[in-house]
Amino acid sequence: MFDQTVFCGANFSSTKQTTESFEFPISFRGCVFSDYANFKNRRFRNTADFEGAEFQVAPLFHGSELHQHTVFTDVRFDILSKDAESAYRALKLAMNKHHAHAEEMMFFRLEMQARRYKTKWPGKALYWLYELCSDYGQSIARPAGILFGSFWLFLVWYWMILFNGRLDEVAATAGSNRIGKLYVFTLEHTVPFLLPVVKAVDTLPGVGFSAWTSTLVAIHTTISIVLFFFLLLGIRNRFRLKG
User: Fold this and answer.
1) Three-state SS for 203?
2) Which pairing describes strands 21-22 and 43-44: parallel, antiparallel, or unpaired?
3) Can you give the pTM of this predicted structure?
4) Pick from 16-20, 189-193, 201-205, 238-242: least confident
5) Mean of the pLDDT values across residues 82-96?
6) DSSP conformation class of 225
7) How would DSSP label each residue in 44-75?
8) How far is 89 from 37, CA to CA, in rounded Å?
9) How many CA atoms lie within 13 A of 223 on its CB side?
10) What gap in Å lies between CA 187 and CA 193, rounded to an integer?
11) What b/e sequence results for 168-205 when a residue is b if at least 16 CB atoms lie within 10 Å of its CB, and e otherwise?
C-alpha cells in the first residue's frame, strides 16, 4: 500500500486502523510517494490530511469513501503515469459527492492534463489550446485577457487594410472620422453579442470586402465567440453552487 514512501511529518493518531478503513484522523503531511499509493476501496471515516505531500505516481483512490475534511492543499501530483487520467477522475468524482467544488475542479484539470499527455497530435493541440485559453474552463482572466488583446491585434490589421499599410501621422489626420468607425467595426466583431454585427460592413467606408478581408473578419468573429464561451464557462465554474 505504501511501498517506497517517505513519511515526513505523518501522524496516524491510532494504531487501531484497519486495512479497509481509517477510523481516526490520519495525516500524510509532507509525505513523498515515489510509487503507487494504493487507497482503493478504503473508507476514510475521519480527517485525512495530505497537505504538502508529493505523489510521484498518480494515487489510486478508486472506490474509496473520503471524509468531508480531506485536505489536498499544496500537493504535487504526477500526470505522466499510466493510470493518471483514471486516478484523477476517481478523485474528481469523490470530491463531487461532497460538493467540494474547488477540489473537484483541481482534479478535473489534472485529468485533462493527463489526457493531453496521452493524446497524439493534432488532438494534443486542442487540449493545449483549451488549457492556454481557459485553464480547462477554470479561468476568467485568461479568456478576458486574450479577448482584450485580440481587439488591439485585429484593430491593427484592419487599420493596415483601411489605410493601405500607412500608419503615419498623415493617414491618422486625414482619416480621423474613418478611424472612429474602424474602432466601432473592430469592437462589433470582438463583442459580437453586445453590438449588432449586421451594421459592421458599413463602418469601413471605401474598403471592398475581398476574400482575404472577409476571411479575416470571419476568423476574428469566430475567435471572439470561442473566447466568450470560455469566459462564461469560467464564470460558471468559479461561482457554481450545488444544492
Assistant:
1) helix
2) parallel
3) 0.74
4) 201-205
5) 93
6) H
7) E-S-EE-TT-EESS--B-TT-B--SSEE-TT-
8) 16
9) 23
10) 11
11) eeebeeebeebbebbeebbbbbbebeeeeeeebeebbe
